[in-house]
Amino acid sequence: MGVVTLGTMLGTYLIAYFFVDQPEIVALIVIIATGIIFIVGHFIISGFVYLAEANRMKSEFVSITSHQLRTPLSAVKWSLNLLMDERWQKLDQKQKEYFEIMKTSNNRMIRLVNDLLDVSRIEQGRLDMRPGKFSLDDMIRDLIAEITPIARDGGVSLGFEVEGGVPEGWADAERVRLALQNLVDNAVKYSNDGGAVKIKLGRFGNFLKCEVHDNGVGIPEHQKADVFQKFFRSDNVRKYQTEGTGLGLFIAKGIVDALGGKIGFSSKENQGSDFWFTIPIAK
Amino acid sequence: MTKIIFVEDEPTLQKTLCDVLRKEGYDVKAAFDGVAGLELIKLEKPDLVLLDLILPKMDGFTVLKKMREDEETKDIPVMILTNLEGTFDVERVLELGATTYLVKANYELREVVEKIKKMLEK
């Protein structure tokens, strides 16, 4: 701002010097121009300060609200666990179905709250990491075992391929699992019946590279630039998929960036997508 | 009988976990605030303490700190059961001497009970 003010003063002086004969008028013009620049500058800076403060308050609000929301959601979760436990009482088919719906909805809400917390941390630059050695290979196998029943229900198969022996990764394992899960969840969710999701793991220089390939709906060309934006949901998905918040890829990118890795994708509408990320290898 | 004390101010969470643990054969006592919880811990000297962090009257951080300062309670294992999740909070309770840390919303009741069983086996 100081440089702009000095530049304006000098510029105004030179222009006034060449076009006005009386030095008093030149001085007056310079003073007026500098005053205007000061006032405009003050408003611009105040605007930025106000925006930064509003952004901080918004993130803090999300963070506090999310913590408060988790408590009643856990109470519902644990109560449902008890109600659905057949060691406590027998349930008929209808009761089981309705309890299952309640459980799924409650878990979706918990996931949403967790996602909002992560978004708020990413935006505040407070996505703290607790790095350590871990096997990405084992993590992928565990995740596949967990997701396979859900994928099978939707008629989607899951495959895994490792290129040679891969070393351990160095990162916050829980966060990497979340990023990976978001990519695999998307691949399954946006695959058509009979679709195939393939996960590939290999070494890429000093990094591990994990690729998640699907032959699903893909991303329209004109929306590719927005894929990692918050709340992004592509047009072709919005038409028939009501589930999904559009936070998964934003969070995955936030995590991978914070770990010093890279994330990217290639995609063709109606043919499928290939999402990949890298994380450092353990030394 | 193995004794467990659960300090939790949310009545539903307290009741559900206590019910399940009693069914598993544990002697479970509970408190709704930090002050009552600490008194109960000193009195009962349990085999395990399940401790929330945001509590009325005295927070879980202070309860844990006071437990570790007391000769009679300093070695009792403590499982933190909370919905706070910042790395700062995790590191702070681990530094204060918590044995483990769970975010309640992310675990099914069955998974929490399994973790408690494993802790008590050690």
What this model shows, in words?
Chain B: Residues 3-119 form the Response regulatory domain. The complex is a heterodimer of chains A (283) and B (122). Chain A contains seven helices and seven strands. Chain A is of the alpha+beta class and 283 residues long. The mean pLDDT of chain A is 87. By secondary structure, chain B is α/β, with parallel strands linked by helices. In chain B, 47% of the residues lie in helices and 19% in strands. Chain B contains five helices and five strands, in the order E-H-E-H-E-H-E-H-E-H. A five-stranded parallel β-sheet of chain B has the order 2-1-3-4-5, with helices on both faces. In chain B, helix 3 links the parallel strand 3 and strand 4. Chain A binds chain B through residues 67, 70-75, 77-79, 81-82, 85, 87-88, 110, 113-114, 117, 126, 128-130, and chain B through 10, 12-13, 16-17, 19-20, 23, 83-88, 90, 103-106, 108-110.
Write a concise synopsis of the structure shown.
Chain A has 283 residues and is of the alpha+beta class. Chain A has seven helices and seven strands; from the N terminus they run H-H-H-E-H-E-E-H-E-E-H-H-E-E.
